[in-house]
Automatic annotation (TrEMBL):
Gene3D superfamilies: 3.10.450.50. It comes from Kribbella capetownensis. This is Ester cyclase. One of its GO terms (biological process) is polyketide metabolic process. The lineage of its organism: Bacteria, Bacillati, Actinomycetota, Actinomycetes, Propionibacteriales. Pfam families: SnoaL. It comes from the Bacteria.
Amino acid sequence: MSTTAGVSASELAVRSIRIMADGDRADFDALIHPDAVNREDDVEPPACRVGGPAGYYATALWLRTAFEGLAYEIHHVVANGNLVAINSTMSGRHVAPFVVYTPAGAVDTVFPPTGQTFAITQSHWFRLEDGKVVEHWANRDELGQAKQLGWVPPTPAYLFRMARAKSRVKRAM
């Protein structure tokens, strides 16, 4: 599959992951199709649930706020036509509340910062159209992340911090 400016489908998909950690809005406009859909946005903030570059950029800001030093190490990339699969590791340090939402957009769970680092495997799937990402799916080791960050098993003190953090987030909305 050809893409714009001589960039291969694999390169485009890899860059679309890397901009989650370091890209500015112009990067998202260049790589994400205006009609793009993120199939993983059902627990993300409402701002992330819009289509196109704006939603993807909002997801990046959501992750960067909670996880300092967010980075992606790419292990494998496989492309077949307009589909690209990537095996990667995401890492960072939990420095701010990580807020998870219900499908209806209400605050579900708030994980107060632990200061801990994590590194988890992820598989990302992309569909490309017109030389841009038009669809994204992912599988993540969320249990591994929760264990590394001390979210599970939760201590009574951390459960109290979670409840207090959730109350603060709800009041701030």
